[in-house]
Amino acid sequence: MNDITIRTMLATDWESVANIYKQGIDTGMATFETNVPTFEAWDEAHMRTCRFIAESTSEIMGWVALSPVSSRCVYGGVAEISVYISENSRGKGLGKLLLEHVISASEQEGIWTLQSGIFPTNYGSIKIHEATGFRMIGKRERVGRLHSKWVDNVLFERRSSIVGID
Questions:
Q1: What are phi and psi of 157, to 5 degrees?
Q2: SS3 state of residue 27
Q3: Nearest to 7 by CA among 44, 62, 82, 67
C-alpha cells in the first residue's frame, strides 16, 4: 500500500470511476442502482468537495465521494458516503484508507456527521466502516427493491469529534 496516492477526483477520471462503480453494481450488494449514471447526473448528485480517487502507477483502484443528505440548511453538515473499490483491489485495506481520507477532508469542510447505508451482506464495507469510527444506528427493513427483491439496508453513522460539538 506504500505506492498508493489519494488525490482529488477529476472529471477526466470518470471512465475509470464509472467502471469501478459498475463493478460494485455487478456484485448486487453495493447499491440499489442498476445502471451507472452519466457523469453529469453523478456530478449533480454529489458534493463538489470531498471527491477522491486512490491510484497506483496511474491506475485508479477506488474512489470515495460525498452526497448531501438533504437540501435543508439544517442538514448542511451531514453527508452520505459512497466508496467503491475495483475488483482487483478489494481486500487490501484501500477502502479504509479512502474512508480515513474523506473523514479528515469532510471535517475540514465543516461536516459533522457522515452516514452510510450498507446492505447487510456487504461484510467488507461494514467492517471498514466500523474500523473508521462508524456505528450502526439501525436497520431499514425492506427499504428498497433490487432486481424485484426487497432488500434491507443497515444505517451507519460517524459523528465528528472536532466539528459540530458545541
A1: -140, 145
A2: helix
A3: 62
